[in-house]
Amino acid sequence: MNTQRKNLAAILPAPQAEFVVEERPIPTPGPDEVLVRNHFIGLNPLDWKRQLTGMFVPSYPAILGTDLSGIVEAVGSNVSNVKPGDRVLGGADGMISHKLDNASYQTYTTLRASSTSKLPMNVTSYLLLFHLLGLPKPESNAQPPNATLLIWGGASIVGNLTIQLAKLAGLNVYATASEKHHEYLRSLGANLLFDYHSDTVIEDAVAAAESEGKPIAYVADTIASSATLSSVQDVLSNSTAIAKVIAHTAPWPEELTKLDGIKTDMVHGEEVWYKPDMIQLGSTIFHEHLPKWLETGAIVPPPYRVIEGGVGKIQAGLKVLKAGVSNQKVVVAV
Fold it and tell me: Which positions fall inside the Enoyl reductase (ER) domain (predicted)?
C-alpha cells in the first residue's frame, strides 16, 4: 500500500485511561473482509462505558468502536457485495473478534462483508423488534398483533429507528421522550407520545392503550437503566395483555427484581457477527432491506452532530455523549 497513507488510531492504553493517538499498520482484509478508509466514526454510549469499566475489553492496549462510514479501499477474495471506491457504512466486530484491525476508532478498519452496506442502518432496532419481541417483520406482510408496542427512550438513536421499523411493520407504536421531541417522533410514526418526566407517565400510557383496546404487550427499553426498567415493568404489570415482553439494550441491573409473568431479554446486536443463523440475517438486513427502505424514504437517518478533528477528538466526543445527548447521533469526522 501507499506509504504516504497513515492509519492513526485512538488507543486505550489501560483501564479508565484516556485515549491517545498512535500510528499503526494499515490492515489487510481477509477473504471475507472489507478494508474501509473511515471518514466518519459513530460514537455509542456503550463506548464510554467500556472505557470506564473494561466491559468487553479482554486486554490492553485496546481500540474500541463499532460504527463507521467511509470508502472501500480493498476487498477479500470472497467479497462480492461491495468493491473498491464504494461508499459504505458498517459495524466493526472488534468487540467480538478481539482484533485491533476490526475496531472503528482508527483511520482504516477491516469489516466483515456481511456487516457492510452501501447504506446505513441500526441492526439493534431490527433485532429488538423482530428477533426478541417476535413481532412480524415488515417484509412478511403478516397481520400485526392487536396490541401496543411501547418504546421507552424514543429520542435515542435506537429508539428513533425502532419507531420507524415498528411503523413499517404496521404496529401500534407508543413512545416516551421529552416533550420537545414529540413532534419529530410523531413524524417518524409514533402514534402516541408521553413525556417521561411526567409523574403520571405510566398510568397515562396504560390507560391510552386500554382505551384503544390494544393493551401494551411489548416494551422496547432503549435506555435500560434500573429506573427505566422499573418503569416499564410497572407499565406491563398494569396492562391487561396476556403475554408481556421487555426487550432491553443493556444487562439487567442486579439490584432490580424481575416480576413474574413478564418475559425479559437483552438484545445482542453483535450476534450478527458470530452466530451462523444471525450472520445470514445481518447480511439480509445490510444487503437487501436497508437499501430499499432508504431509497424509498421508508427509513429516515436520525439527526447527527459532527465533531471535526480526526481520531484525536474521539475522547472529546465521548465526553459529549456521556454528558447526555438525545435525538442525535454523535460522529467524529476523520
Answer: 10-332
152 and 249 part of one domain: yes
The boundaries of the domain holding residue 250 are 123-266
Residue 141, in any domain of the structure: yes
Q: Would residue 292 count as lying in a domain?
A: no
Same-domain pairing of 311 and 252: no
Are residues 163 and 218 located together in one domain of the fold? yes
Residue with cell 493517538: 21
Predicted TM-score (pTM) of this structure: 0.69
Q: Judging by beta carbons within 10 Å of its beta carbon (0-12, 13-18, 19+), is residue 277 exposed, middle or buried?
A: exposed
H/E stretch holding 172 reads: strand 172-176
What is the residue type of 32?
A: D
What Cα–Cα distance (Å) separates residue 17 from each residue in 48, 55, 96, 259? 11, 14, 21, 38
In a domain, 257, yes or no: yes
Does residue 157 lie within any of the structural domains?
A: yes
The structural domain count of the chain equals 2
Is residue 120 within 8 Å of residue 126, measured between CB atoms?
Answer: no
CATH code for the domain in which residue 250 is found: 3.40.50.720
Q: Which of 265, 295, 273, 317 is nearest to 111 (CA)?
A: 273
Cβ-contact 221, 228 below 8 angstroms:
yes
